Structure formats: C-alpha cells, structure tokens
C-alpha cells in the first residue's frame, strides 16, 4: 500500500507543488469519503461539555505533524505497545509484523481515503521488496519514523532482547560499551604480555631476591624510623600545643586578676624549664657517649676492612696455588709420557707433594682457626656496641616518655587553673551585666513614663482649648495639679537617678579595678613573653637534640649496614673456607707468596687510592673467574687425556697378554722369567697410577662442582659490586680527567714558560755575542736592553691591566645579572609588599651609582691607554732615530771599506815595481786583515740593525693587538652600559606602571572592603536591634507569665485557707474527719514521664548554656564598645 506524502521539514520537496506533475493532478471529488454517522445530532448532544468523538481511531494511521524530538526518546508511553512487545518477546522472541503491513489487509470503516494511483505514481513502494520483506513507506529524514528499520526475516530473532529495534541513543551507548570492552581487553593483553616476558626463571629469581632484599630493608628502616621519629614528633607536637596554650593563656590572662595562683604557675613553669634543661644536658652527655661508641665502630670497620683484604690476598694465593697444581699436573703428564724409568722419581715427588699438602692443610686449618677467633671477637664487639646503642636508645625513649608525662601533667594543671580563673571572671562579668541592665531598665522606664504623662497632659490641654473658654479655668486647674504631680514625680525620679548615679559610680570604680587587673595581667603577659622566649630557646635545644638523634639514627643505620656487610663477609669467608678445604698446594711456596703479598699489600695500601684498590678487587675477581674457567678447561683436557691413557693401557694390556702367551713358551729361561716379573710389576704400578689418576679426577670433579657453585656466588657478588663500584669508578674517572686536564694545562704552561725562557736565553746569548763582537755598541746595547726590559714590564703591565679589565668585565656581567635578579625580585615583591617603592628606589640608586663607577673606570682605562700609546710612539721614534744613525754608520763604514780597497789597489799598482816582494806581501796581508775587520764590523752592524727591526716589528704587532683588544673591551663595556641603562629605564617604567596599578588595585580593594565592612556593620546593627527587641519582648512575656503564676498560687492559697476554715467549722459542729492518710503510689507512667521531663530539661539546659555564653560575650563586647565611646567623647 501507499500513503499520501505530507509536508515535512524538507522545504524543497514537500512545501510546494511539483510543476512537472501538474497535469497528473485530479481535483475531482473523491467517492471514498462518506459522512460520519450522527453528524446532524452533534449539537443536540452538546450540553455544556466537550463531546467525545464516536469515530474510531486507527492505531496504524499516519501521525501527522508530530514533534521531531520524539525520534530520540524511547517508545515507552503506550502501555499497549509495552504489553504487546513483552508478549511477543515471550512467545516468539521477535516483533510480529503489524496487521496493516500484512498482505490482503483491508481498511475498515475509516474516514481516510484509500490508496490512489496518483500517490502510487510518485512512490517507490510498488517495486518488489528485497529479500521478500514487508515494504515500508518512504518518509522524510526529519520524521520520527525516518530512522531506517531493518525488519527481521520470518522466524529470525529480534534486534535486541526485548524484541524492540534499537534507537540511535541506544546504538551510541552500545558502541561506547563495545569500545570500553575493547580497551579493557587491550589492557589485559598488554599486562599479560608483560607478565609473560617477566615469567622467565632468571628474571623471576632476580626479582624475588630483589623483592626480598627491598622488603627486608623497607621493614627494618620503617621500624627504626617509626621508633625513633615517634618520640620526636610527639615532643614537637606537644611543644607546639604547649606554645599555643601559652599564647591562649596569655590572651586570656589579660582579662583576669593577677594573684598568687599565676605566680605559682610561673614558678612551676620555670621549674619545668629547668628540668627540661637538665634533661637536655643529660641527652647531650649521652650523645657524646654515642660519639665515643661511633669511634669504636669505626675501629671495627677498619678491622673488617683489613680482614677482607687478607681474605682477598688468600684468594689470590689460592689462585696461584691452583696454577702451581696445574703446572704439576702438566709435569705429571710429561712424566707419564716419558719412559717407565722415571716412575720411581715421580712416585717420590708425589709422596713429597702429599706430605707438603698435609702440612699446608694443617697450617691452613690453624690460620682458619685464628681468623675465626678474630671474626668472633669482632662479632662480639659489634654485638656489645649494638646492645649498648639499643640500651641508650631505650633510655632516651624512657626519658622522652617521662618528659611527655610531665608536659601532660603541667598541661592539666594549667587547664584546671585556667578554668577556675575563667569561672571567676565569668561570675564577675555576669554580676556587672545584671546590675547595668537593671539600671538601664529603670532609666528607660522612667523616661517612658515621663513621656507618656507629658503626652497625656498635652492632649488634655488641647482638648480643653478646643472645648471653649468656659472650661479654661478647669483645664488650668487640672494642668496645675498635673504639674505638681510632675514636680513630685521628677523629685522622686531625681532621687532614683541619684541612686542610679551612685551605682554607676560604683560600676566605674569596679571598672577602674578591672583596669588595674588588666595592667597586672599585662605585666603577667610580659613575664609570659619572657617564658615564651625561654621556651623558644628550649625548643631550639630540643631541635638540636632532634638533629643529634637523627645523626645517631644515621649512625645506627651505618651500624646495620656494617652488620649486613659483616654477615656478607662471614658468608664469603665460609665460601672461601669451603674452597680452601678443597685446594692442595705446596706449603713453602704458599708461605713465600703470602710474605711477598703481605709486603706488596702494605706498599700498595700506602700508595694506591681508593679507585685503584677497587679496580684491583675487580681485576682479582675477574681473574678468579678466568682461573675457574681455565681450571674447567684443563679438567676437560685431563679427562680427554685420561681417556687416551685408558685406551693406551688397553693396548698395553693386550700386548702384555700376547707377551704372556709368548712367555709361556719360554718359561725355562730365568732371564725371561725375571723380565716377566718386572713387566708385571710395571703393569701393577701403572694400574696403581691409573687408580690414583681416577681418584684425582673424581676429586677434581668435586672441586669443579664446588668451583661452579662458588663461581655463581662470585658472579652474583660481582654483579652487586660492579653495580656499586661502577658509579664510584665513573666519579673517580671524572676526577682523574679533571686532574689530567689540570696537569695538561700545567704542562702547557710549563712548556710555554720554558719556551719563553729559551727565547730569553737566546736573546741574552745574542746580547753577549754582540758585546763580545763589538765594543763600540755596548752602551747602545745596554740601553736597548734596559728599554727592552722596560717595554717588557710595560707589556706585562698592559697584560695585567687587560686581565683586570676582563675581570671587571666579568664583574660587570655578574652585577648585571645581580641587578636583573634584584629587579625580578622587586617586581615579584611589588605584588606582596605594601610599600615596594622604597626598595625599588634604593635599587635604582645603587644601579645608577654602579653605572657612574663604571663610566669613571672606563674613562680611567681610556686615559691609561692613551698614555701607553703616547709612550710607545715615543719609544718607536727613538728606535727609528737609532736605526737611522746605525744605517749612516753602516754606510760610512762601507765607504771606508771602499776607500781602503781603492788605496789597496793603488798601492799594489804603485809598489809592484819599487817594493820588494816581502814588503809587498806584508802590506797586502795588513790591508786584507783591516778589510776583514771592517767587513766583520759591517756584518755585525747589519745583524744588529736587523734584530732591532725585528724587535720593533714585534712590538708594533703587540701594540696593535693591545690597542685592538682595548678598543674591543671598551666597545663591549659601552655596549653593556647602554644595555644596562636601557634595562634600568625599562625596569623603572615597568616598576612605575606596576606600582601605580598596584596602588590603584589596593585602593579599589580598600574601598570595596570598606563598603562591605560598612554594610556588614549595618546588617549587624539591624540584627542586634532585632535581637534586643526580641529579648525585651521575651522578658515581658516571662514577667507576665510570672505574674500569672503568682496570681494562680495566691488563688490556690485562698482555696486552701477556705478549705481549712470549712474543716474547722465542721470539727466545731462535731464531725471529725478521717485523719488516716493513704499515700498513693507512683505509677510507672508517672515515673517515666518524670524521667523524660528531667532528661528533656537537662538537654535543653545544655543547649541553652552555649547560647548563654554567646550572649554574655556579646554583652561584654557591647559594654566595652560603649565604654570606649564614652571615653572618646
């Protein structure tokens, strides 16, 4: 079937007509509509109420214009739907197809139209459904039926357990639940994988051991901490409570009388303080005893360390003996491989070795016994020290308990005295409050009566004036009467006022007495302050004791650690004993090696550091492991060799049997018989040797097993020690690296100094050479050396100044950082302090002064630099003049050399003919020597000039470097100064801004608080006014009730008197009443009611007691405010 599409929220589809299908529309009258029955009698049935419709409603009809919000709400409003769902769920387990959706359904008498072809043309429900399911009408997305429904197949189960299709909200909830379950499953998988990874045997054993150790350490440490910190915490808490109680007591004593009780209490407190001081002295003495005991513990530690070193030495000796055993085994093998003639020698050696082994075993047993005795003595010492420490700790705990008990007793006494004093003060205040209230009430009543009388007189006067002149005289007379009455009343009231004034004077006198009491209380407060200072000093002493106790706890922890180390050492010693019992070695070599190792250990203990000793221990342990492994390998080799030997023996036995068979044929020969007997002896000896070797192999197997066990223990210990020593090694390596770097730097400095010394020596040698070569330039050279030394000193001074400048630069940087930190702290303090401007101003002044100092220092450095530049330029000019002079001298010398050469040539040419050859030769030699001298002088001068030029160039380079460095330093300093000034300016601006904002914030906060305070005071005044009126009203009610009660009692008394008179008259008549009185017993109900009434009254009185205290405090405050206001007036 198909339905008419109604307008939905999709505006583009259903809110306007489709123009494409306009020609298909039919606006003719539908024949399927028929008028409902009873339509004409509709108005006849109406009788003032709304008629009920008689047309039946089809529950499966389309719901038009239903709110779209129902889409996301559960469909649970219809009881019929719930019932059908439950029935269907119980019967079939799935929703049934509605009747309207079944094939062949016909609408009953309904006013709705049947399906038309026009609707069928635009609908898609004509086509066959998928999977033969019931077709569903197409709906818009915003409809409450627009959620896609997947109807189940015939006989399939429903979508959920109740037979209902899930809504969107239920689907979201189901998806969230599935996501949570998936996350939980992922977590389970992760933790299971982690548990499986940790389920291995090696990890499990290590974790178990670590857990056991951690738990033991935790339990012991927690127990010790609880035992030793409990007393300190209790003492601190009690001291804090005692201090607080003293403060409260000082505040309350201001309102009490100073009497002998306070003095006694002060004496008791002083006595208690003296007792505490004596106890503190005792504790200090005990702490000194603890320190002495700590020295004993240190000596025991040293002895334990020595024992450990000796054990390590013995270990090394055992390793060496194992090596010797291996060597002997090798010798034995070599001997076995040799000829049979060496068997006797080997047996003799084996016997000697056995004797030596026995001797070694005896000596080792003696050594073990001595060491065990030493260890037992050390154990007894440690036990005695620990027992002494435990006794001292218990004694300290007893002292602390006694101190706590005394403090509690003093606190109880103080509480009792405080309660008595408070009760006295409360009684006095209550009496004064009652008197003041009575006086105030009388004054108020007098004023009220007076005002009412005056008002009545005025009213009567006004009434008399209004009635006319004829009654004026009567009114005047009455006015005079009333005036006389007023005068009398005023006189009486004046007397009463005088009485009240006298009472007020008495109250003021009592107030003066209270002021005196308060003055005395202030004095008592001062005394309490002194006591508080004393108590503070005692608290400091107690804190010192607490610190000392903590130090003693640390010492006890160290003792426990020593104990554990001692236990570990005992375990190690036991293992070593087991190893030593299984070792066989030579005694003489052992003694020699022990003596050598003792000497070496003493030498190494004096020379090596802690790092080297630990590295040595590590290497020894590694060596042990390696030796054990080598022993295992050698034992395996021995096994293989024994197997080879067994095979050889088998072959030998076979050969022997063959030879015996051959010898049976040759028994007649005596020589052969003796040879056979010798061969049998040899075979027996070999068998004995083999048995001995088998015994050795078995023994070695046992040793291997023991070594494997010890190896596992040593590996475990190695792991622990490596973990502990690794960190120490890293630290020592870092220290060594630092020391190495320092040594390298020192070496570099040394090399540079040596190079400088060598250069200086070369320069000195050069100067000596110059002095030896040329005498004429000695003075110049000395002067140059002096100038050189002066320049060197100046250079050193410049270098020192550069260092000073760099130091000042670092100082400036530090000052800058300090200023920045101070600025930050000042900025932070502006939020917390009330007046930060003073501190900021001081900081700014300091910064400005530092800037001025820096500028002055920079100016001085510039001035010094300019002076140095001027001096260096003058020195350079002098050097240049000297160079020019030297160059002129060199040129003159060259000219003289040229002249001499010309003269020599001329003389040669002129004297060739006239002078004899001898004279000619002599003259030429003379001239040549002079020329050589001149050339030498010229060469020396040129070398001097070159040296001077090099020195000048070096100095120029140094001067340039110095000038560039000084300029760079000045630029950096100027830059830093500018940055400092800018930062100071920014800081000043920020501080001004922050200070103004803080001041404004404070002003606004103060104004808000003042407004709130004024409002609170107004509210409190209104509340007090209301409560006062209420109290006055309640007091009036109570007074009226009291009057009524008194009136009732008076009436009862009248009735009693009347009854008595009636009885007397009856007795006078002669009728005597029955005098016997039968007392009526109280019933259970009356007793219960009486108990309930008593309990109720007691409860109400307890509740009202708190209110009474509050009322008394309020009254006291009000009276104090009134008195203060009167004094101010």
Strand percentage, roughly? under 5%
Q: What's the tally of helices?
A: 16
What is the H-and-E element order? HHHHHHHHHHHHHHHH
N-to-C span: 102 Å
Radius of gyration: 62 Å
How many domains would you count in the coordinates? Answer: 4
By helix and strand content, what is the structural category?
mainly alpha
Helix proportion range: over 70%
Number of DSSP-assigned strands? 0
Choose one word for the global shape.
Answer: extended
Give a structural overview:
- By secondary structure, the chain is mainly α.
- The chain has four domains: about 10-160, no CATH class; about 220-590; about 610-770; about 775-830 and about 850-990, Helix Hairpins, CATH 1.10.287.
- Helices cover about 85% and strands about 0% of the residues.
- The chain contains 16 helices and no strands.
- It has helices spanning about 10-15, 40-45, 80-90, 115-120, 170-195, 200-255, 260-335, 345-465, 470-580, 585-605, 610-665, 670-775, 780-830, 835-915, 915-1070, 1085-1129.
- α7 (about 260-335) runs antiparallel to α8 and α11 (about 610-665) runs antiparallel to α12.
- The longest helix has about 150 residues, at about 915-1070.
- It starts with 10 loop residues before the first helix and ends with a helix.
- The model is unreliable at about 10-15, about 60-75, about 110-135, about 140-165 and about 835 (pLDDT under 50).
């Amino acid at each position: 079937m198909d339905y008419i599409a109604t307008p939905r929220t999709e505006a583009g589809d259903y809110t306007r007509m489709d123009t494409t299908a306009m020609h298909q529309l039919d606006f003719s009258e539908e024949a399927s509509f028929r008028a409902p029955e009873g339509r004409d009698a509709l108005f006849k049935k109406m009788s003032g109420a709304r008629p009920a419709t008689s047309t039946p409603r089809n529950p499966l009809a389309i719901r038009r214009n239903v709110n779209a919000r129902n889409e996301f709400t559960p469909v649970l409003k219809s009881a019929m739907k719930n019932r059908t769902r439950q029935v269907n769920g119980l019967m079939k387990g799935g929703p049934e197809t509605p009747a309207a959706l079944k094939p062949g359904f016909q609408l009953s008498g309904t006013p709705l139209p049947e399906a038309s072809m026009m609707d069928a043309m635009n609908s898609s429900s004509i086509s066959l459904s998928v999977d033969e399911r019931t077709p569903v009408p197409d709906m818009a997305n915003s409809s409450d039926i627009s959620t896609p429904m997947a109807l189940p197949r015939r006989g399939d189960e429903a979508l959920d357990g109740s037979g209902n299709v899930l809504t969107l909200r239920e689907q979201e909830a189901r998806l969230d639940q599935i996501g949570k379950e998936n996350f939980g499953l992922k977590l389970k998988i992760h933790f299971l994988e982690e548990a499986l990874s940790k389920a291995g045997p090696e990890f499990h054993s290590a974790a178990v051991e670590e857990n056991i150790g951690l738990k033991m350490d935790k339990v012991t440490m927690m127990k010790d901490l609880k035992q030793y910190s409990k007393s300190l915490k209790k003492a601190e808490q009690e001291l804090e409570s005692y201090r607080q109680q003293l403060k409260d007591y000082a505040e309350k004593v201001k309102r009490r009388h100073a009497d002998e009780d306070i003095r006694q209490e002060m004496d008791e407190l002083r006595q208690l303080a003296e007792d505490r001081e004596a106890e503190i002295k005792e504790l200090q003495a005990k702490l000194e005893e603890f320190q002495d005991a700590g020295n004993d513990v240190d000596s025991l530690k040293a002895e334990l360390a020595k024992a450990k070193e000796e054990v390590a030495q013995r270990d090394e000796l055992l390793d060496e003996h194992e090596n010797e055993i291996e060597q002997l085994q090798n010798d034995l093998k070599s001997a076995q491989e040799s000829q049979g003639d060496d068997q006797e020698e080997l047996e003799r050696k084996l016997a000697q070795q056995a004797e030596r082994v026995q001797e070694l075993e005896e000596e080792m047993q003696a050594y073990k016994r001595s060491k065990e005795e030493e260890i037992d003595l050390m154990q007894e010492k440690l036990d005695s020290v620990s027992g002494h420490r435990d006794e001292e700790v218990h004694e300290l705990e007893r002292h602390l308990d006694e101190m706590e008990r005394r403090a509690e007793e003093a606190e109880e006494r103080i509480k009792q005295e405080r309660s008595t004093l408070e009760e006295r003060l409360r009684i006095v205040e209550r009496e004064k409050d009652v008197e003041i209230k009575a006086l105030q009430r009388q004054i108020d009543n007098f004023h009220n009566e007076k005002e009412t009388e005056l008002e009545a007189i005025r009213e009567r006067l006004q009434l008399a004036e209004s009635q006319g002149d004829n009654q004026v005289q009567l009114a005047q007379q009455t006015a005079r009467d009333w005036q006389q009455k007023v005068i009398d009343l005023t006189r009486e009231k004046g007397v009463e006022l005088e009485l009240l004034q006298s009472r007020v004077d008495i109250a003021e006198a009592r107030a003066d007495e209270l002021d005196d009491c308060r003055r005395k209380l202030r004095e008592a407060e001062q005394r309490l302050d002194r006591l508080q200072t004393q108590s503070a000093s005692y608290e400091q002493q107690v804190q010192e004791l607490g610190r000392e106790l903590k130090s003693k706890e640390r010492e006890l922890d160290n003792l426990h650690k020593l104990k554990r180390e001692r236990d570990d050492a005992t375990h190690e010693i036991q293992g070593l004993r087991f190893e030593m019992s299984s070792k066989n070695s030579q005694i003489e070599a052992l003694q020699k090696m022990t003596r050598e190792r003792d000497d070496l250990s003493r030498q190494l203990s004096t020379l090596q550091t802690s790092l080297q000793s630990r590295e040595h221990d590590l290497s020894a342990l590694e060596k042990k492991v390696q030796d054990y492994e080598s022993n295992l390998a050698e034992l395996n080799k021995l096994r293989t060799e024994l197997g080879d030997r067994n095979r050889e023996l088998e072959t030998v036995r076979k050969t022997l049997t063959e030879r015996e068979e051959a010898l049976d044929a040759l028994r007649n020969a005596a020589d052969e018989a003796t040879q056979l007997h010798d061969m049998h002896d040899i075979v027996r000896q070999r068998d004995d040797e083999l048995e001995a070797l088998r015994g050795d192999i078995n023994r070695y197997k046992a040793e291997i097993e023991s070594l494997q066990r010890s190896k596992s223990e040593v590996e475990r210990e190695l792991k622990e020690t490596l973990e502990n020593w690794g960190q120490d090694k890293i630290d020592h390596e870092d220290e060594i690296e630092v020391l190495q770097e320092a040594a390298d730097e020192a070496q570099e400095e040394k090399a540079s100094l040596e190079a400088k010394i060598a250069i200086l020596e070369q320069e000195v040698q050069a100067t000596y050479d110059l002095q030896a070569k040329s005498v004429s330039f000695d003075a110049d050279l000395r002067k140059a050396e002096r100038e050189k030394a002066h320049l060197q000193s100046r250079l050193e001074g410049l270098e020192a100044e550069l260092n000073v400048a760099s130091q000042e630069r670092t100082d400036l940087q530090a000052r800058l950082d300090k200023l920045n930190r101070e600025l930050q702290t000042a900025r932070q303090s502006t939020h917390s302090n009330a007046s930060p401007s003073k501190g900021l101003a001081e900081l700014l002044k300091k910064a400005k002064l530092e800037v001025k100092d820096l500028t002055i220092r920079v100016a001085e450095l510039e001035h010094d630099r300019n002076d140095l530049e001027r001096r260096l330029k003058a020195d350079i000019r002098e050097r240049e003049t000297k160079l020019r002079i030297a160059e002129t001298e060199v040129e003159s010398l060259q000219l003289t050399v040229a002249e001499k050469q010309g003269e020599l040539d001329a003389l040669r040419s002129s004297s060739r003919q006239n002078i004899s050859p001898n004279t000619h030769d002599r003259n030429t030699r003379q001239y040549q020597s002079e020329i050589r001298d001149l050339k030498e002088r010229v060469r020396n001068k040129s070398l001097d000039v070159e040296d001077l030029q090099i020195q000048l160039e070096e100095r120029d380079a140094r001067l340039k470097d110095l000038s560039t460095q000084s300029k760079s330093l000045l630029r950096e300093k100027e830059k830093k100064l500018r940055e400092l000034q800018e930062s100071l300016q920014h800081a000043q601006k920020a501080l001004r801004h922050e200070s103004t904002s803080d001041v404004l914030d404070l002003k606004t906060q103060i104004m808000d608080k003042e407004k709130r305070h004024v409002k609170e005071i107004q509210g409190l005044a209104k509340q007090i006014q209301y409560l006062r009126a209420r109290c006055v009203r309640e007091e009036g009610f109570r007074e009226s009730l009291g009057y009524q009660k008194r009136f009732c009692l008076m009436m009862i008394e009248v009735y009693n008197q009347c009854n008595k008179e009636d009885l007397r008259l009856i007795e006078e008549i002669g009728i005597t009443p029955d005098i016997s009185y039968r007392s009526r017993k109280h019933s259970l109900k009356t007793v219960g009611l009486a108990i309930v009434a008593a309990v109720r009254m007691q409860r109400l009185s307890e509740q009202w007691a708190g209110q009474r205290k509050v009322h008394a405090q309020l009254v006291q405050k009000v009276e104090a405010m009134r008195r203060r206001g009167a004094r101010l007036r």
